[in-house]
């Protein structure tokens, strides 16, 4: 069940570097050779950006077809409207069509196409605007196949004055056209990196000492934690069918209106599965909304490096209760927790173990409320809005996006108060 991976914008393509280093390790595992690669050895990936700089810097070690590198000549000015509708220069508006054609060709090379995984930013013009338009086009052209959005959220302190507008608009498109959205907040992973570094070093390490390259590596590890092949979903002969992304949707999104997922991960060479689970659940609980008690619709744990096949035994004896207590499941879901295992760990150091926790919970409310608050304040003041009007984004579109986010917050709040 093959997937096509689409990297859009500067963020999506920079994330592809550590991500495909991890995916490439799967090729050395028997039965996993063709999960991420075609029969001829090329990656099942398409890389799209509105300017050529980042795509030109991709290393030759990445086996990307030249026809799958789609680049324009002008950036999108951190503006959703410019990313979605394109520029005034006709010779630079081929990116969407060329990208869709590259994906179509890649789909035809798949033995059994199941869907696309799109990596992009919620704050950049290309990542948010072109990313939203591309996901819309994918759903219209291939309506029976799944789309997972891996959306990187900018730091709340601000990387651009337009990021709240871009995120507001992008979230509406994702709610309409994606089947699942994995929210990847930079703030959360920077905090996570600081937590790890401080636990290993007595000297205080400030956020400024952590680069976006470090953050991208952590995000890539988290994504690989849920997308890489597992023994649980492989055949009895150890052949991976590449079902992990689509089983993720089935497990974590029982309702189409609430389909936003967070990832937490811990790795260690020394800790037991019980200790890893405690750390993962404990750190995840620190990311909760303080106004509403944390409630979780569903969760997935993926244990990698389980060479002794003892993780499921630990789940039955103690981990199941520990995880259930830590994430606070809702009452109506009678099967809220799924567990996968793999003997190999492609995302960590040799002999290490990793535990990845994917949850659909009220944790996302913090981010939604931040976006709504910041964008509403700017809209009420009329700040920067003319830049969007001149690029095809009307007041009606802003109103619809605001209403969509209000409804999304209401849906998750009803879960937390239920």
From TrEMBL:
Question: What family is reported?
Answer: Belongs to the tubulin family.
Taxonomy of origin reads:
Eukaryota, Metazoa, Spiralia, Lophotrochozoa, Mollusca
InterPro entries reported for this sequence: Tub_FtsZ_C (IPR008280), Tubulin (IPR000217), Tubulin/FtsZ_GTPase_sf (IPR036525), Tubulin_C (IPR023123), Tubulin_CS (IPR017975), Tubulin_FtsZ_GTPase (IPR003008)
One Pfam family from the UniProt entry? Tubulin
What is this protein identified as? Tubulin delta chain
Q: Which GO terms describe its cellular component?
A: microtubule
Q: What is an example of a GO molecular function annotated in this UniProt entry?
A: GTP binding
- Which GO terms are recorded in the biological process aspect for this UniProt protein? microtubule-based process
- Residue ranges constituting the Tubulin/FtsZ GTPase domain according to the UniProt record: 33-238
